[in-house]
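Weekly sync, protein design subgroup
Attendees: M.S., D.O., the rotation student, P.L. (late)

Item 1: inverse folding check
M.S. brought a backbone from last month's batch and wanted to see whether the design step gives back something sensible before we order anything. D.O. pointed out we never logged the input encoding, so this time it goes straight into the notes. Structure tokens as presented (219 positions):
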């Protein structure tokens, strides 16, 4: 099913939107209350089981929804029913921007929240400055050696929250912290202990950090 319009307030829908490498599978939910913006959440690495069904990505989207934002999460190219093939975070940025454009066409003039987890955090950071995001939420963002030593993306130019666990065994906390310190201004950082990479049993901390951030920075 092609998503030609948004579902009714309080409802959600799943279907296909046009992307740069073919159709992208997308899930979108509309708040019951008046819309306060739009949000796009990006999932972890496609080659390691990442998909829009990931529980951290679901938490990002549902938290945005609870704050009054139309919330979309989608599968990058080559994942689920999305067409195309993996492109090492290059084409995936264009996928993200395509979903942003689709939402903006249906909700013109609304501010944009981008969010992502792991690989999706890197992609959404890459997309944020190009999309003119109003805010960015990054969960365990990888840099450097995870992407063939690519240079860090530009500053998103908006309020930016980063949440990371010190004991992350997939994305080095120390390496990420060192790179985040080079940004001016640096992002708002929330550090936890014992949550690992996937925040098993710790999703409330993701939700609470994001809720506090939106309460401070979303009008």
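Designed sequence read out in the meeting:
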């Amino acid at each position: 099913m092609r998503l030609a319009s948004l579902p009714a307030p309080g409802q959600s829908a799943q279907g296909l939107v046009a992307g740069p490498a073919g159709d992208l599978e997308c899930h979108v939910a509309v708040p019951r209350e008046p819309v306060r913006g739009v949000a796009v959440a990006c999932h972890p690495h496609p080659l390691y089981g990442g998909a829009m069904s990931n529980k951290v990505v679901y938490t990002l989207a549902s938290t945005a929804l609870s704050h009054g934002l139309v919330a979309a999460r989608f599968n990058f190219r080559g994942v689920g029913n999305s067409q195309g093939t993996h492109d090492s975070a290059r084409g995936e940025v264009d996928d993200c921007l395509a979903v942003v454009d689709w939402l903006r066409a249906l909700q013109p003039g609304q501010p944009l929240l981008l969010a992502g987890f792991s690989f999706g955090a890197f992609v959404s950071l890459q997309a944020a400055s190009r999309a003119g995001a109003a805010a960015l939420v990054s969960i365990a963002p990888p840099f450097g050696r995870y992407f063939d030593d690519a240079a860090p993306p530009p500053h998103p130019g908006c309020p930016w929250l980063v949440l990371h666990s010190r004991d992350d065994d997939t994305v080095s906390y120390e390496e990420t912290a060192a790179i985040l310190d080079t940004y001016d201004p640096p992002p708002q950082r929330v550090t936890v202990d014992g949550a690992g990479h996937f925040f098993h049993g710790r999703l409330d901390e993701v939700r609470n950090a994001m809720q506090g951030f939106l309460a401070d920075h979303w009008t």
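Discussion: The longest strand covers residues 12-19. The radius of gyration is 16 Å.
Action: P.L. to compare against the previous round before Friday.
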